[in-house]
Design goal:
Among the domains are: 153 residues, Response regulator (Rossmann fold, 3-Layer(aba) Sandwich); 155 residues, 3-Layer(aba) Sandwich (Rossmann fold), CATH 3.40.50.720. It has 16 helices and 16 strands. It has a six-stranded parallel beta sheet with strand order 6-16-13-12-10-11. The chain has a five-stranded parallel beta sheet with strand order 2-1-3-4-5, with helices on both faces. A hairpin with a 2-residue loop joins strand 14 and strand 15. Helix 12 packs across helix 13. The longest helix is centred in the first third of the chain and has 29 residues. The termini are far apart. The relative contact order is 0.09. It binds nicotinamide-adenine-dinucleotide (NAD). Nicotinamide-adenine-dinucleotide (NAD) binds next to helix 16.
């Protein structure tokens, strides 16, 4: 029996919102509501009523289109008609639950039966609104559904606070090992088939302890997977012209399949000029302008190793970047920019990518939005726990030495209480970058063996 007026019911639901927001849980100010109904009049009238209440409205004329919007937009609430051509409302309810069980679904139907109501409940529908309904009935049911959404969010937050989330470590060493094992097999197969071997030549100008230690680890990596490795040491006084000439000779040397130029170079040499001289097919660091240009067009050939390493680490988490809010801090030519292009390289599956840098104002506002946060700056302590979104994936590229210890740009102890997954420093991006150098060395060899430059790089986009 109807005992309360519609106005009373609306007030009651608004009370729930009020109490929840007093407890620090704001109503999703501009909640997004999706209306899936094959009748245009119904879609239009729901849009008219609900947009007056300030909601953002999306509409779909069938289940397939509705599901697409659910995946792309993640609405807070979906109004689902049961009888539609193609995918039925029942089927759609189930699929919405698969995308995100927190999305509230409300059934709107011209054929209300007890059985269909029960069936819809089983498929996670929150409520059931028989057609025809008045604008007020629609407003009440939507507000009630959204208050349910806020309650669930609140419970989830409390649960997280209770447990003091400890992020799962993304194990860079394990990811690198897997890449190396695959390379080892591939090299054996290709050598047998083509009677050829990959050879990486490292060019070092003058002496430098950091670069010498890097040479040692390159040698070890190459030995592990079966790549021949040579170091060419050149005198510190060498001129830029002589160095370019040396590189050009090695470009012509068929035995050398990959060339890496060790940094730093002495002052008299412009690194970019020498990188430009490396044959793009032997450019295992992806620093030649031609390779950078290919990356711009979304058809990368050889790509800077650290950018590839970050993509590989994200892939290892099983998370798709498609449509995700990814915030990248750092826009260097070697890490940030190529990475931004990789994140945007797929026509339909790219991430929603934000790139921050030294001039970014209110960095925290950008990092807090990120479902995936990547930091490549070189400033220890830059990213604090309160700058990280609850449940985010955090990839810390930074390498800094503080009190004799290696640390990243993210305060790990704080971040692990907020993030769902995080890379450690050391043991995160570093080992995978080293593995990607080996991968690029094999890629460059394959290009020289005649493999299709473009078809063969699909793995990067998967
Ligand atoms: P870089 O100095 O070339 O670029 C630094 C970037 O950080 C720039 O885009 C700059 O605008 C930005 N930046 C500086 N201060 C900032 C601030 N306060 N807020 C926001 N952005 C800021 O450095 P890089 O070569 O890109 O390297 C970045 C870090 O990654 C370094 O610590 C480096 O050692 C490390 N790194 C690690 C690997 C690895 O394999 N793990 C590989 C390459 C670089």
């Amino acid at each position: 029996m109807e005992t309360r007026s519609n106005n009373e019911k609306i007030r009651e639901v608004e009370d729930v919102f009020g109490r929840l927001s007093e407890q620090g849980h704001e109503m999703p100010g501009r909640a997004t509501i999706l209306v899936v109904d094959d009748e245009k009049d119904m879609r239009d009238s729901c849009r008219r009523t609900l947009s007056k209440d300030g909601y953002l409205i999306e509409t779909a004329e069938n289940g397939d289109r509705g599901l697409q919007i659910v995946r792309d937009v993640k609405p807070d609430l979906v109004l689902v008609d049961l009888k539609m051509p193609g995918m039925s409302g029942m089927e759609l309810l189930e699929k919405i639950g698969d995308v995100d069980p927190k999305i509230v679904s409300v059934v709107i139907t011209g054929y209300p039966t007890k059985e269909s109501a029960m069936e819809a409940r089983k498929r996670n529908a929150y409520d059931f609104l028989p057609k025809p309904f008045t604008p007020d009935q629609l407003r009440i049911i939507v507000k009630r559904g959204l208050s349910q959404f806020i309650k669930e969010e609140k419970m989830e937050t409390e649960l997280i606070d209770e447990k003091k989330r400890t992020a799962k470590l993304i194990d860079g060493k394990a990811v690198a090992q897997k890449v190396k094992e695959e390379l080892k097999k591939e090299i054996v197969e290709l050598e047998a088939k083509h009677q050829s071997s990959p050879l990486l030549l490292a060019v070092q100008v003058g002496e430098n302890p950091a670069s010498t230690s890097y040479l040692k680890s390159q040698k070890k990596g190459c030995e592990e997977v079966g790549i021949d490795y040579q170091v060419q040491q050149l005198p510190r006084e060498i001129s830029e012209k002589e160095l370019v000439q040396f590189i050009k000779e090695k470009n012509e040397d068929e035995k050398v399949t990959g060339i890496i130029l060790q940094m730093p170079l002495p002052k008299q040499i412009d690194a970019e000029k020498v990188q430009e001289a490396i044959d793009p097919k032997k450019d295992v660091e992806g620093v030649n302008p031609q390779n950078m240009g290919l990356l711009f067009y979304g058809w990368p050939g050889l790509v800077p190793c650290t950018a590839l390493a970050v993509m590989e680490l994200i892939k290892s988490t099983g998370t798709s970047i498609k449509g995700k809010q990814v915030t990248l801090v750092g826009h260097s030519a070697l890490v940030g920019k190529p990475l931004a292009l990789l994140l945007l390289s797929s026509e339909f599956d790219s991430a929603t990518t934000t790139v921050c840098h030294i001039a970014t104002q209110d960095l925290a506002a950008q990092t807090r939005r990120a479902e995936i946060l990547i930091v490549a700056v070189g400033k220890p302590g830059l990213i604090k726990g309160d700058m990280i979104r609850e449940g985010a994936i955090v990839i810390d590229v930074g390498i800094n030495r503080v009190d004799g210890k290696l640390v990243g740009d993210v305060i790990f102890e704080e971040a692990k209480e907020k993030a769902s997954m995080i890379t450690p420093v050391p043991g995160g991006v570093g080992p995978v970058t080293a593995a990607m150098l080996l991968k690029n060395t094999v890629e460059s060899w394959k290009i020289q063996l005649g493999f299709d430059f473009r078809a063969d790089i699909k793995w990067r986009m998967d």
